[in-house]
Write a structure and sequence with these properties.
By secondary structure, the protein is α+β, with helices and mostly antiparallel strands. It has 2 domains: about 5-225, Rossmann fold (3-Layer(aba) Sandwich); about 240-350, OB fold (Dihydrolipoamide Acetyltransferase, E2P) (Beta Barrel). It has 9 helices and 21 strands. It has helices at about 40-45, 95-105, 110-120, 140-150, 170-185, 195-200, 220-225, 230-235, 325-330; strands spanning about 5-10, 15-20, 25-30, 55-60, 60-65, 70, 80, 155-160, 190-195, 205-210, 215-220, 240-245, 250, 255-260, 265-270, 280, 290-305, 305-310, 315-320, 335-340, 345-350. The strands form 4 sheets. Strands 7-8-9-3-10-11 form a 6-stranded mixed sheet, with helices on both faces. It starts with a strand and ends with a strand.
Length: about 350
């Protein structure tokens, strides 16, 4: 019992060729940059795009198969879809938006409205039932879209960047609520995002998509610990250094030197977690911090009580510090700082 996806299709300049499965109760995150094909995958699963090869199965039942010409239309698939911009009908109330999917599947109007009212109550939106989408907040609109997708009792729930349309102040609260609703859904869930925070908060497993291909899969801990490319490392929010180890020193292709501990000799990957990067305004003299580099702050990104600091220098890095530490250092883009990392905080594995 699972969602099985094995599809190829061409769409403009994108050549998509992916295979994966999702188990009941699992959230798989498709993580990747814009244009990687993430939304295209969801649309193919939902039956909004025809595939050129392969097909989609839910609980062993084929939904499309180019070999036999089978193609189950979107409205007959056991799939709910939450679109990036929610796509609520502006001329319909919240209640009628939720009832729409039910009526499209043949449910009587009165029954559809009753079930829609039940779902709005579950989402804490009973008092918004008669309101149109334009009068809803971003978080409320997202919950209406989620209610519409879940009201049909699908086996598969697809979510395309469900938090992207929200401002930063709203996103954290809505992410928490979304996690609660996903946890109560017993089917298979596929979440598209480009934000590693969404993956950490909501997903059980991640598939990294780039240029129409899945380049790495695993739990977020596995992918974070052993990213297979700098691009993957950047997407999952960690630092990946490549180079050659001789003795206790890793030398990068640009000539930067990194002191490491217990590292294999030869070509390696080294993971430096942002939380392991300490920042100071003066060079650190702590003998345990054997790596100290002069850096320039290029960007600051606050996430709750943490701040991710992008650094440029001999070894470009991202550090993660507390808001209090940022205030104490009075950091701004363009500031000169020193970054220090203990050799024992660096995980090295063969390339």
């Amino acid at each position: 019992m699972s969602l099985e996806v094995d599809i190829s299709l061409g769409l403009g300049t994108l050549g998509l060729d992916v295979s994966f499965d999702v188990r009941p109760g699992e959230v798989l995150a498709l993580l990747g940059p814009n244009g990687a094909g993430k939304s295209t995958v969801l649309r193919a699963i939902a039956g909004l795009l025809a595939v050129d090869r392969g097909g989609v199965k839910v609980d062993g039942v084929a939904l499309d198969d180019e070999g036999t010409g089978l193609f189950v239309p979107a409205e007959r698939r056991p799939i709910g879809f939450v679109f990036q911009d929610y796509l609520l009908f502006p001329h319909l109330s919240a209640l009628e938006n939720v009832a729409f999917g039910l009526r499209a599947r043949g449910m009587a109007k009165a029954d559809a409205r009753d079930r829609a009212a039940e779902w709005l109550h579950r989402m804490g939106l009973a008092d918004q039932a008669s309101h149109g989408p334009r009068s809803l907040s971003g978080g409320q609109a997202q919950r209406v879209a989620l209610a519409r997708a879940l009201a049909t009792e699908p086996r598969v729930l697809l979510l395309d960047e469900p938090l992207a349309a929200l401002d930063a102040g709203t996103r954290r609260e809505v992410r928490r609520d979304l996690g609660h609703h996903l946890a109560s859904f017993p089917g298979m869930r596929v979440l598209v995002t480009h934000d590693p925070v969404d993956v950490y908060a909501l997903a059980d497993r991640v598939a990294v998509l780039d240029a129409g291909r899945i380049v790495q899969t695993g739990t977020i801990a596995e992918v974070t610990a052993h990213p297979k490319s700098r691009h993957v490392a950047e997407m999952v929010g960690t630092n990946l250094v490549t180079g050659t180890v001789a003795g206790p020193v890793l030398t990068t292709p640009t000539g930067a030197r990194v002191v490491v501990a217990d590292a294999p000799v030869g070509e390696v990957f080294a993971v430096i977690r942002p939380q392991a990067v300490a920042l100071s305004l003066a060079a650190v003299h702590d003998v345990s911090a054997r790596n100290v580099w002069p850096m320039v702050v290029t960007d600051l990104d606050r996430m709750g009580d943490r701040v991710r600091v992008a650094l440029d220098g001999p070894l470009p890095l991202t550090a993660e510090i507390t808001v209090a530490a940022m205030a104490a250092l009075s950091l701004s883009p363009g500031d000169a700082v020193y970054a220090a990392v203990k050799a024992t905080e660096i995980e090295v594995y063969p390339a």
